[in-house]
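Handout, section B. The chain below has 268 residues.
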Amino acid sequence: MHGARRWLVRAALACGLLGCALFGARQASRHFVFRGQGRAVATSAANALVLRAPDGALVHALELPREGGPWVVHFHDNTQTAEEALGFGRALHARGLGVVLMEYRGYGAAQGLDPSEHALVADAEVLLAALAARGIGPDRVLLSGRSLGTGVAAELARRGRGAALLLVAPFTSVVDLVREAAPWSPASLLVRDPFDTASKAAQIAVPTLVIHGDADEIVPFHMGEALASAIPHATLLRVAGATHADVLDRDAPRVLASIAALATTSCR
């Protein structure tokens, strides 16, 4: 009897320790996903937008306005701030597009807030509603995401919040990324913010451009291929020799021309 009790106590202790380990790992996974959290950079001359989310948090964005025509609403990668994505925004703006770069909670001007998949999508909804109130509705919006931002942009496209979708170096899901790096890990238990674009792909009805470098060392090229095949109206632009960092720069004229063409043909 005493032996059985000792076994039960040990089993309970082991389960508790495993639970603590998994909780700690899940917390660590969030820090891995939102690697740029806490980064702040000097502000620029771009127009700053400050809105309020339903939970009271402030939603920050940078705007490069244009009268009429398509607008690009862009969600940056997990190591950048919106300010650091301005080079891409200015390149699109120079091609006649209005541009808005949303900041993530905990990044840049949005310090002191905890990011999560749910919070980023909710903040994006606030931003898109504010644009719609100014006459920049979904029919004029190209939803754009790079790396982590592709998970946000894809979810909004699934909800019908834009007329077209741009995915730059997209992953199928964060769970798949973890499995790719560590096949032995219980990835589905560790990841708190899955950003599972693959499961939503069939529900994305808008014209979509997937841009991916075939030398990407962070997000494997085959993930971009898989999404381009799974999204009904998607086209894959393969950038030969491009890594995760230089995918927008290696063949910039062709890349930017393709993005502008998507915006002008799909958005009013």
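Note. The domain at 34-266 is CATH 3.40.50.1820 (Rossmann fold). Compare this with the example in section A.
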